[in-house]
Amino acid sequence: MAPVLIASLPRSLATCVRYGQGKSKICWSLSSRPVGALGIRYKSTPAAASLVNENAAVDTASQDDKDKDPLDLTFCDYRNAFKSKTNSELLRAMLVFHLCSIQPLVDNNAKLMKLGQKVLGKRLFAALMKATFYGHFVAGEDQIKIQPTLERLRSFGVKSILDYSVEEDISSEDAEEREMESCLPSSEREEEKGGCESKAEGSNAMERYTPQRKFADRRQQVSGARTYFYVNEAQCEKNMETFINCIDAVSDATHGTGFAAIKMTALGRPQLLMQLSEVIARTRQYFQQVTGKTGPIIHSDVNTDVFEKRFREENILTDNQAVKKWLDNMTYDKKGLIHLFSWSGLIDTNILLGDLFRVPNLNSGQMEPLISALTREEEEMFKNMMRRLHTIFQYARERDVRVMVDAEQTYFQPAISRLTLEMMKKYNQEKAIVFNTYQCYLKETFNNLSLDLEQAYRQNFYFGAKLVRGAYMEQERARAEELGYEDPINPSFDATTNMYHQCLEESLRRIKMNKNVGDSHKIAIMVASHNEDTVRYTVNKMAEFGIHPLDRVICFGQLLGMCDHISLPLGQAGYSVYKYVPYGPVNEVLPYLSRRATENSSILVKLQKEKSLLLQEMWRRIKKGHFVYHPKGNYIPVGAHAQAYK
Fold first, then answer.
1. Do residues 569 and 69 touch, judged by C-beta distance below 8 A?
2. Which residue ranges in the chain fall short of pLDDT 50?
3. Shortest CA distance to 631 belongs to which of 254, 152, 223, 204?
């Protein structure tokens, strides 16, 4: 049926056929002029019909639009999508995507790569990888060799997030041992070595924050994220230096438009993040116990008087120096409480965790800790982690580089988010340097994002966020079922999509509110998604809320080597878009390449479309006689200075 339909089309239409899930979908490529100079060209497509009003156009014209291309929101414009690639790069991409669609090859990719190293030797194996997977997904071996890739991306309107993607390749057994050793408090380590399972106090909800040997290898069932395992403090120092070097590379190579990415578990003992996450959960329980309110503290409309009244009812002396000091240290403003504790003390390297997290016991009136007792060594380790974070963010601010703090598992994430927000409050006073990551497959993400936006507003600091779907779904669900706490993941793909859209709309609403009072840059959001519908939705919502690409408050992000048919047209149309650019020596980034192969195999429908577009562009060049093609772009990314490219 499809060939008959295609043959009946007028010659003025170019077609792109996408095959997936046994169905064929047709994308129309109209040779019409854009409605505006930086207009969005709507083309009829079944995939976009529910999101795109085909008879409407988004008017985003500006004085710089003469240098921009119209945006095809069906993402079927193969010529613009791949005009940054040479012919050999097109062929390599088609080969790599074809290999990613061979399931037995993907399932055994790690074993095959190790076998290839042994049979071919490291040098010949490296050459083979550079001609295939490494060349497609990785920019180069070091800060010098990645320059051509970064320059090419920039010349086609795309900026970069740099990530040094070297990973240690260790066995599952070694990973388990490292994780259990680093996540158990010192008081429990000997028990665990003796064969005891880790113990959890309280309800199943608190069991989430205890280490479990069955889930100790955090790489299991995860294809989209890198995992760090704690070795010692010296290794954390090396990781910090790696992040610092990455910031240097961003600053030197991206002309002030790039990001660096970090993971907090690389910078300290995971046990401390797990214990801090439990403290946050117990703080919420204590607030509910005292006030009877179940909602978030910042939205509770509660002040210190409520606590004083309850303490008097329980015969706790509020003029007791310890209790009085605790009440005085609450964080609040005219609207009421923001935090139960002065969380800024959390990132103060002179304050002990054991001293910070103490509350009046409602029965005895005595101050008691919410965190299990830490040894002097563990307190010192936490100070070291805070020092490393301060070093990274302070250096990033000096080099004018933004830093993405990646999201991790839910038993670490409350601590990671709280620390990141406190670092925002300190380092985001003039612009957004520190960015947090929000995983929209989690049921609580919209509430968490709303609370963090409210805190940034009430405490007057710049807010930066990256919105992602999430990387740990199967692992999180299995762990929740095993330990008996509520599944933290949304029930369906559609529920996650709705959560993503909710988070995006709330961010856009606040951006518009700020823009109306002349303060439009207080919030910066990255839409990190390979999903066409999500990108379309964002573009349409930007127009609906009156947010122009040149406002530089919304940007898009995709991985290098994936979804070029989304990234490149966005950049060439004047939107702020980034590629997540990994780099590192060939034989040391194999775990990263293994994950990319697995991730691509899991999105076969998207892969089929990109393969189809690659083939059409290759065929177009052959018909035009472009047997040798040298890409040359003259686009300037949003936010970049034109003189930097002269």
1. yes
2. 1-26, 28-63, 193-202, 643-646
3. 152
